[in-house]
Design brief:
The chain has 120 residues and is mainly alpha-helical. It is 16% helix and 6% strand. A three-stranded antiparallel beta sheet has the order 2-1-3, with no helix packed on it. A hairpin with a 7-residue loop joins strand 1 and strand 2. The chain is elongated and about 70 Å long. The chain starts with a helix and ends with a strand.
């Protein structure tokens, strides 16, 4: 049964038709490979595709001229970068937010043929 919003809303299965497939069905891009994973809810599918966390860059103070705010801001930024806690995800819909480049070798590869990439 499809795992999208319509089934979750209890729409009758007989009336559901997946016109464009499912984002949760992962297949190999290699023409000769038939690898298919149905209902793969792994997010992210590989670590390189994880949404980056917000950076904790030190922020300059508009009012403090003594450097106390700068020291606090720097300590907070360093503490955040060394923390093992999961931070807040960056807003990647904002064009001003830098998104890291992903190397081709870090993209998901087919476990069967080893040459094709996996995609929805």
């Amino acid at each position: 049964m499809p795992k999208g919003l319509s089934p979750r809303a209890n729409h009758p299965r007989s009336q559901l038709h997946l016109l464009h497939g499912s984002l949760f069905d992962i297949k190999c891009t290699d023409f000769y490979c038939n690898h298919l994973e149905k209902d793969n809810f792994t997010d992210p599918i590989v670590p390189a595709l994880a949404i980056p966390e917000e950076s904790s860059d030190p922020l300059p103070s508009a009012t403090d001229k003594t450097g106390a705010d700068a020291s606090t801001s720097m300590a907070t930024a360093l503490k955040g970068s060394q923390s093992a806690k999961k931070g807040k995800e960056a807003d990647i819909s904002d064009a001003a937010v830098p998104v890291p480049e992903i190397a081709v070798d870090d993209l998901p590869r087919c476990p069967d043929c080893k040459t094709g990439m996996l995609r929805p």
